[in-house]
Design brief:
The complex is a heterodimer of chains A (220) and B (486). By secondary structure, chain A is mainly alpha-helical. Chain A is built from seven helices and no strands. Chain B is an all-alpha fold and 486 residues long. Helices cover 79% and strands 0% of the residues of chain B. Chain B contains 19 helices and no strands. The two termini of chain B are 35 Å apart. Classes of the chains: A mainly alpha (220), B mainly alpha (486).
Chain lengths: 220, 486
């Protein structure tokens, strides 16, 4: 039975890494948001599974937050913003997709090497969960630096945060996980409202971060 | 007597934590800004009283909260600067209403946020739980983001956005590090809150898996280091300082950076207590030196006065990280002293910069000239501040920098070379700016000063006294804390 529980946990965490890689090469806004919703659903399943095998009912709350808030409400809200701003066609990337994918694969390899070496003593489920989680975090970071558009940066940040929740739930019996996932949800809600407010104030024509650089010459 | 002491101690923590929280919510409901400004001062004063009570009567470490020899230094400094800033803010902020930069509704919000931010910072300092500390730092970050963007100009919104994104990445990395520390602690201490409490972590850390701790510390240093403003993760700092209200710039530089530094120091203590981990010092020394030299170079071509002092904060946080990275009783002592002096001096500088921006109606360095002619008190205050922050005698920063340089020369002369170069570059840049700002022919607007000078000169007086004579008990206390830091 332990083997089966272990395999399912692995499967879900591994799929999250795969979907993170999928996020990297989406070049349309609507597709990006759909893939992110899938990411959040997988996270909810993974957290729910951890709640089941660790016999930790409070983790179901975290799973529910992931499902309702991150898979439904946030992508829905972002879709509306994207439609209102009319930026659903192209996503500007800083470097080409191919190069980004290569960098992504390198980061996953790096995460595996670092985590598996550093945690040789820990129990196998925890260490491999951590390796997956670190890959997701690094891929999220890569997405944030390789995109110029504010909405896709936010998607990158949320996928990064999903990796953190995965790590936190994989750490058996960690206190405050629910509180931390609530705190993160508040943070994300703030970010999304922030984007929305930028637009409502009509201070900018786009939410392209590059276009916000008004103080130009003073940049350090 | 004992009963009274424990009674007082229990309430002291309430004053430090609950007062800001309750006032924060209360102030959001009050319509009059004059009343809320006064209440803001009152709440900050009560928190200061609470922290001073903690000095004499300290409660036992609990499950979630603790007060020990290390964090009490930070708590007292935090509440003191918050108190003086609230006085400055009370006399300063009405002018922002007159010029139309803020509306009454936003001002109400501003006072509420000020107290919530203080709650977040105080909670981060007294937390006995690495997860709780993380949540508190995030709370403090969120409130400062809102404050930075409160003027709602495009520049302010951009600064807030940048701060938000970089700060979020920072706290995300810090959380990953926090989880790793828990993973390292669990096999030894067992599941539950115990494995996240500082008091139990430090007792058992010698048995933790060193590999996990190493990776954890790298993430924690990068994560909380973003909030400290260490290069290359500093990009949010100058913008956030330049675009927010000046009292907030003072609190950011004087307090929030210290709170993040406190988190790094705590984790460094953990790492030091485990004999098999990599040494944490060299990492901090490297980041500190990079920040120092980079920021010192950046000081030269600044055109905005608040941005100039924002870079100066990066420079000083670099020096402090360097000192704590060197470690040992003397360097740690110098680091603590430097941190205290920098907080006091930099917040005082931002007070005077706030006056300057109000009388001149601009933050552009080129438009600010001849202050010593038009506003002698203000001009000299700014001159004193710049001289003090540049690390020239007879002020406290001179003493702490002198200690850092001499202790580095004694232990590792090669490291002292870049340190001294960075320091000299910084002094040069600030002196160049000083002559333009304070002396020369006055130009532009010259409105009278409306805000209070008291907080400003109170800080300078303390920095001057510390530069000339440090009281014996304070030296002993700092030495004790420096010893704790290892």
């Amino acid at each position: 039975m332990h083997g089966f529980a272990f395999d399912i946990a692995h499967l879900l965490a591994g799929s999250l890494v795969l979907v993170s890689l999928l996020l990297l090469y989406q070049d349309r806004m609507s597709a990006l948001l759909n893939v992110f919703a899938l990411h959040a659903v997988l996270l909810a399943l993974s957290v729910g599974w951890q709640a089941h095998i660790q016999d930790a009912p409070h983790l179901y709350v975290t799973a529910a937050i992931a499902l309702i808030f991150k898979a439904i409400i946030i992508p829905g809200g972002l879709r509306r913003i994207v439609k209102k701003l009319g930026i659903h066609r192209e996503i500007e990337t800083v470097v080409g997709i191919g190069l980004t994918m290569l960098a992504g694969i390198a980061l996953v390899a790096l995460a595996m090497v670092v985590m598996l070496r550093a945690t040789a003593g820990a129990d196998p489920l925890a260490r491999e969960d951590l390796a997956f989680a670190l890959s997701i975090v690094l891929l999220g970071l890569l997405m944030m630096v390789s995109r110029r558009n504010a909405v896709s940066q936010v998607v990158g940040f949320m996928s990064l945060e999903n990796g953190l929740v995965l790590a936190a739930t994989g750490a058996k019996g960690m206190p405050l996980v629910v509180e931390i996932s609530v705190a993160f949800s508040v943070l994300i809600a703030f970010i999304v409202i922030g984007i929305f407010l930028f637009r409502i104030r009509e201070r900018f024509d786009t939410v392209d971060i590059g276009a916000l650089d008004q103080v130009g010459g003073e940049r350090g | 007597m004992m009963v009274l002491a424990t009674h007082l101690a229990a309430h002291a923590l309430d004053l430090v934590l609950l007062v800001p929280l309750l006032f924060g919510f209360g102030l959001a409901l009050l319509p009059s800004y004059r009343v809320s400004a006064a209440l803001n001062v009152l709440a900050s004063f009560l928190a200061l009283i609470g922290s001073l009570l903690l000095l004499v009567a300290r409660p036992k470490a609990g499950e979630y909260l603790q007060v020990d020899d290390l964090n009490i230094v930070f708590i007292v400094l935090n509440t003191f600067v918050a108190f003086t800033t609230s006085i400055f803010s009370a006399t300063y902020i009405a002018h922002e209403l007159e010029t139309g930069r803020l509306t009454p509704a936003y001002l109400r919000f501003y006072h509420a946020m000020f107290q919530i931010m203080m709650f977040g910072m105080n909670l981060a300092l007294v937390a006995n739980n690495i997860g709780l500390m993380w949540v508190a730092v995030e709370l403090a970050t969120l409130t400062t983001v809102v404050m930075v963007g409160i003027y709602r100009t495009p520049e302010a919104l951009e600064a807030a956005w940048k701060y938000f994104i970089l700060g979020s990445v920072g706290i995300a990395m810090a959380l990953f590090g926090t989880i790793l520390v828990y993973m390292a602690a669990r096999p030894v201490i067992g599941q539950g809150l115990e494995s996240m409490a500082w008091t139990t972590l430090i007792q058992h850390v010698a048995d933790f898996d060193p590999g996990l701790l190493n990776v954890a510390f790298v993430f924690l240093l990068l994560g909380y280091g973003t909030k400290v403003g260490l290069a290359p993760l500093h990009a949010w700092l100058p913008d956030a300082h330049a675009e927010g209200p000046t009292p907030i710039s003072a609190v950011l530089s004087g307090l929030l950076l210290n709170v993040a530094l406190y988190a790094v120091l705590r984790f460094k203590m953990l790492l030091n207590a485990n004999p098999h981990t990599i040494p944490a010092g060299p990492l901090m020394v490297t980041m500190g030196l990079i920040s120092l030299i980079f920021a010192a170079l950046m000081l030269y071509r600044r055109r905005d006065i608040k941005r100039l002092f924002g870079y100066s904060s990066i420079e000083h946080m670099g020096i402090i990280a360097f000192a704590f990275g060197m470690g040992g009783p003397l360097a740690n002592f110098a680091g603590l002293l430097h941190m205290t002096m920098h907080s006091l001096t930099k917040s005082a500088i931002f007070f005077s910069v706030g006056h300057v921006a109000q009388v001149k109606g601009t933050q552009k360095i080129a438009d600010i000239k001849g202050l010593s002619v038009t506003h002698p008190a203000l001009g000299w205050a700014l001159a004193i501040g710049v001289i003090a922050i540049a690390g020239l005698p007879p002020f406290g920063i001179f003493m702490s920098e002198f200690l850092i340089v001499t202790s580095t020369f004694a232990r590792d002369p090669l490291l002292a070379v870049p340190l001294v170069i960075g320091l000299l570059l910084g002094v040069g840049a600030l002196m160049l700016r000083l002559s333009g700002l304070v002396f020369g022919e006055p130009t532009g607007r010259t409105d009278p000063v409306q805000a209070s000078y008291i907080p400003l000169f109170a800080h300078f007086a303390l920095v001057l006294i510390a530069g000339i004579y440090l009281p014996g008990p304070l030296v002993l206390w700092f030495q004790h804390v420096a010893h704790l830091l290892g």
